[in-house]
């Protein structure tokens, strides 16, 4: 499999937990990748690239285009670096994937990687919940099974900090309404890939009336250090969230994260 957890060593928790204006705890993390660690960077690039196109599929998909693997990814699959919404989509996809890795490898969820490979327009976000993960306790389909829905926002440039954590909290309010469609889309993409066993796992979470489980919600914001402002956390509020007792908040900050984003996309294409 193309997936790896090694880049998570660069994600460290900052002590002294912050809280929102209504007293909700926020987990604050720092992300500082080491570009000189070429082996870990290379495995991370492979992991990242395969969200958009499996290495086992790229030769078939590029057949007839006349494009190399690198150019196929840069010209067809990856969001653009300068055109329109491209840079923002790059940042957004990067943030979602990094939070997916945290949910999978730190919070021990199963997170299907289905969101980016079937984009028809690469400089647009995929509709639906940003991220869904599952934590199935055993085979009994108990109420202790967990479905976690995450909304993720990023800001890696600019001169004024935007309320991205509040934006993620506000969008999380809509996730209950989007859940059924998002689960169906995820199940369909897994089926289309021939991954029937994983597609069937989604079924357990599609009928909460007859087969109840625990729902959790997450809101995450990512900032470059130069735009990060503590008030982006402390002035946020979860008061209007209908499931605030089952809501957890994450903020990630790090150096020049847009440079990290562009370097990772470039490395992913160059090593395809």
What is the string of helix and strand elements? EEEHHHHEEHHHEHEH
Q: What Rg do the Cα atoms give?
A: 18 Å
Strand fraction equals 15-25%
Shape: globular
State the helix count.
Answer: 9
Termini gap: 15 Å
How many beta-strand elements? 7
Number of domains: 1
For the sheet with most strands, the description reads:
7 strands, mixed
Arithmetic mean of pLDDT? 93
Give the proportion of residues in helices: 25-40%
Find the structural class using helix and strand composition. alpha/beta
Low-confidence segments, given as residue ranges, are none
Describe, in short, the structure shown.
By secondary structure, this protein is of the alpha/beta class.
Q: How would you describe what is shown here?
A:
There is one protein chain. The protein is of the alpha/beta class. It has one domain. The chain has 9 helices and 7 strands; from the N terminus they run βββααααββαααβαβα. Strands 1, 2, 3, 4, 5, 6 and 7 form a 7-stranded mixed beta sheet that branches. The chain is globular.
Task: Lay out the secondary structure.
Blueprint: E1 11-13, E2 18-19, E3 25-31, H1 38-49, H2 58-62, H3 69-77, H4 86-105, E4 131-135, E5 146-155, H5 164-172, H6 175-192, H7 196-203, E6 214-224, H8 231-234, E7 247-254, H9 257-270
Parallel strand pairs: 3-7, 5-6, 6-7
Antiparallel strand pairs: 1-3, 2-3, 4-5
Helix pairs in contact: 1-9, 3-9, 6-7
Attribute tags:
272 residues; seven-stranded mixed β-sheet
